[in-house]
Write a structure and sequence with these properties.
alpha/beta, three-stranded antiparallel β-sheet, 11 helices
Length: about 300
């Protein structure tokens, strides 16, 4: 069965091989919208090697994150009924879009999964935390991931969603409040970090996303983390074995084979001060902008 015309939204400011990876998978009526901030961004000079690729200059955001603004702009510019959101920081195999269409036809709105791979000491240490709380949590709760999600316009209250998207930080967390998805057990490895400072800023953002959208989840996460950390001090051998086996089980379940599962025990202990730090921070940096996030729909761009 032929898939309906589809618009793929790719927020990015730089050219990457991902553009060609996606463009070569598009059908004649499909389109790829590359959404950047400014006409001076490197990707704005893309020579449009593929006819069904368009560059959209979103401009500077006001009262929301740069990515939320880019996606809202892309949604306004999209000409097709079926929509895909994706990112430029992971490989899109040749059958990625076709497999996505097949999954949508079977399940309705669908999302894929991420597995964060650290490339600095702190992000490497935190890999087990992100695997258990992020990858497993997203899969278990059937939450959409903005890096790979497919839906159609009438799957959600689009007008209200776009209104709220233009006044918040997290695109996929907000989407989860408007859209019921089936999260597929298909993993994309996404490299994160680069420097310890970048990892700290990302960790603050992740923590505050949970806190702003689901404050009770923050309390639960804090309590569980504190109990596990206390157990690690009282019975370090048993706790170490237990959390390491948990992390190894999660890695294995998702088909990821990395030695970082062995870091689960120290990562749990470190998560206690990191959680306190993340909740105490009043601002954080994402994509070159500093945000002050007062409440779910109260976002100030400080720099």
């Amino acid at each position: 069965m032929m898939s309906p015309p589809t618009t793929v939204l790719l927020p990015t400011i730089t050219w990457s091989p991902v553009i060609a990876e996606i463009a070569t998978q598009l059908g004649p009526s499909d389109e790829l919208l590359i959404i950047c901030d400014d006409a001076s961004d490197p990707v704005a000079d893309y020579d449009e090697e593929f006819q069904n690729v368009r560059i959209i200059v979103a401009g500077e955001p006001t009262g929301c994150s740069g990515k939320a603004h880019a996606l809202a702009t892309g949604m306004d510019e999209a000409t097709n009924h079926r929509i895909v959101w994706t990112d430029d920081d992971f490989h899109h195999p040749q059958d990625w879009l076709a497999t996505f269409h097949e999954a949508y036809d079977n399940h309705g709105p669908v999302s894929e999964l991420y597995f964060f791979v650290g490339n600095d000491p702190l992000s490497t240490l935190l890999e087990p935390i992100y695997a258990i709380g992020g990858t497993l949590g997203t899969y278990a709760d059937d939450k959409p991931w903005g890096g790979a999600v497919m839906f159609e316009r009438d799957d959600l209250d689009l007008e209200s969603f776009l209104r709220d998207l233009r006044r918040t930080i997290s695109d996929d967390q907000l989407l989860s409040e408007y859209l019921e998805t089936t999260t597929l057990k298909r993993i994309h490895r996404v490299e994160i970090g680069g420097t310890v400072r970048e990892t700290l800023e990302r960790h603050v953002r992740f923590t505050q996303i949970i806190h702003q959208h689901n404050p009770w989840d923050t309390a639960t996460m804090g309590l569980v983390t504190l109990l596990l950390a206390a157990f690690s001090f009282v019975a370090p051998l048993y706790a170490g074995i237990g959390v390491t086996l948990l992390a190894a089980g999660v890695y294995t379940y998702f088909g990821v084979w990395r030695w970082t599962a062995l870091l689960a025990s120290p990562a749990i202990i470190l998560q206690v001060p990191l959680l306190i730090y993340a909740l105490a921070r009043r601002t954080f940096v994402w994509g070159g902008r500093r945000y002050r996030w007062q409440s779910k729909f109260d976002v100030e761009i400080v720099e």
